[in-house]
Structure formats: C-alpha cells, structure tokens
Amino acid sequence: MSTRRAPRRVSRRPIQLVALRGFEASGRLLSFTLAATELNLTQSSISRQVAALERQVGQPLFVRRTRALELTSAGDRLLKQVRQALTAVDRTVDEIRGLIGPPRVSLTTYASFASLWLVPRLAAFQRAHADIDIRIDAGDRRADLEAEGFDIAVRWTRPQTAPSTGVLLLEEEITPALSPQLLERSGVVLNAPADLLRLPLLEMDDGMPTTAASNWPRWLEFAQVKGQPRAGRLLFTFVDQSMQAAVRGQGVVLARTPFLTDALASGELVAPFPKLKLKTGYCFYLLDNPESRDTPHVAAFRQWLVAAFEQGPQRFT
C-alpha cells in the first residue's frame, strides 16, 4: 500500500518593514545621500537598510553606478507598491492624530498651466469653498496619483496616450499673438500672415520634444506662408516664459489655448489672424484618484475645474 506525502508547505518570509522608508526615499530621489538627508539618517545607514531589504527580497533593487542610482525592474515594481502603502498609512495616521485640519485637494500639473491658467482662477474657488485647502504640485514629471497621494491631475498629452479614464477638457490650438504696444512701436501693418516675418518670433526651444507640433515652420506652412523670419527668434523652454515675453512686447508668440483666450480678454495680446488656428494634436485631460474622487471636497473641486474650462476666457488684469 503506497502512501502519499503531504504537500510541502512553503513558508513565507516577511520582510523587515523598517527598511521601507529608506528604500522609498532612495527610489524616489535616486540617491542614498539625498534620502539620508530627508530622513535625518547617515548615508551608510540608508545603504545598509537597502542592502538588507535586497537580501530579504532576494533580488537587487538598484543598479549602483558611480554617481547615480537606477531602479531595477524589481525595484521599480516594489517602489510603486511601497509608495502607495506608505501614503495610505501616513494619511490614516494623520487622521487619527487630527493633524489634517481642513479638507485638502492635492493637484498635480505642469508649471505653465498652473501659473497661466489655474492659479489666477483659484480665488473664485476659494471664495465659494473657503474651508478647502488646495495643494498644487507643478512640474514636468508625471506623478502617480495613487502612489503619491494626489487627488487630481491635469495633463497635456496626445489622445492616443491619454488614460482611458481621463476626461477631455480642451483640444489645443495655436495662433500668432502679440502685444498692441509692439504692433504700434514696430509700424508693421499685418495685412497678411507673411507680414509676421518682419517681427521677432518667440518660440519654444528646438530641443523640446513637443516643439515640432507647435512651432513656427509648421504654422507658417499651415498659413501658406513662404520665406524666413527677418528679425530673428527668441527661444524659450517654458510656455509661460514665451507668453510673458509677448506681453512685454518682445515678439510674436504662437499662443496656445486656453492661455491665449485670457490674454485676449485682458487686452494684453491681440491675435491678428484669429481664424488661422492650428490644432497641435495635444489635449488637456483631467484625471482623478479613484480612492478619493468621491470625497465631497475633491468632487467639488473637480466639478469647479470642469466648469471653469467650459466657461472659457476670463479677465484678470
């Protein structure tokens, strides 16, 4: 009579949680030194924590180069889960301690949108919702809403790369715009698009990956203009810099919606050929965090933001 062996139990080895803070900071900052500074520890202490975590996981989490760290595929996968878990724990602890105070909406977006469009409109939201705090993270990086605890993101992207859950806010268009002072000072009469070539042109830096979708050669071709600028170009790395330069009368900018409409409403800029608007292929999308979208304060801000896009231009000067 044969006997069957009982299936072998595979014991799970829990990792030591003390190392997760050091790993998360190191992975986010890609530096043991910066992680140590943030956590008020020594660099060697952080390095030992990460090394211990790698032994427990059984795989390297970082590629250590001379002056930089890179996450391995295993490290990148673990970091996403650790950031999400630590954010949830910290938020719960703050609630228990009673340190959160007023309800807060955390929004991430890129800097030019925040400075040119969002911040000028926030006063209206704050008048209607004085009890809600707003936190804005403005930068070029694409934040992970759930892992980093953001409630809402406004992103500028092509439709084919937009998340399926994103809400389309606006399709971007560009058209030339300049200050009335420049038009008067230059003495140039803009009877046709080709006349713009007699004025300085403001443009995004050629090295920016999105420049090809919204540069002067593309718009001039769209407007059936031949020839080269006669007064040179000024190149910028940020949209708000180019808009501010146009307002100061330094040249003609290819102004983008929705920023253009506010500048026209205030009289800071004029659009000499308003019907010649070129679609860039980029759009603004609203994304929200499924964990917080149904909370009253986030829902209120989301509703206000969508309505503000639908409302169109406002005058702030």
Please describe the structure with a list of short key phrases separated by commas or semicolons:
317 residues; Arc Repressor Mutant, subunit A; D-Maltodextrin-Binding Protein, domain 2; eight-stranded mixed β-sheet
For the record, give the distance between the C-alpha atoms at the N and C termini, rounded to a whole number: 94 Å
Radius of gyration, Cα only, in angstroms? Answer: 26 Å
Secondary structure class reads alpha/beta
* Helical amount: 40-55%
- The CATH class name of the largest domain reads Alpha Beta
How many helix segments?
11
The number of E-state strands comes to 10
The dominant shape is elongated
Approximately what portion of the residues adopt beta-strand conformation?
15-25%
| Strand order in space, largest sheet | 4-3-5-10-6-9-7-8
Describe the 3D structure:
There is one protein chain. With 317 residues, this protein is an alpha/beta fold. It folds into 3 domains: 79 residues, Winged helix-like DNA-binding domain superfamily/Winged helix DNA-binding domain (Arc Repressor Mutant, subunit A), CATH 1.10.10; 97 residues, D-Maltodextrin-Binding Protein, domain 2 (3-Layer(aba) Sandwich), CATH 3.40.190; 110 residues, D-Maltodextrin-Binding Protein, domain 2 (3-Layer(aba) Sandwich). The strands form 2 sheets. Strands 4-3-5-10-6-9-7-8 form an 8-stranded mixed sheet, sandwiched between helices. It is elongated.
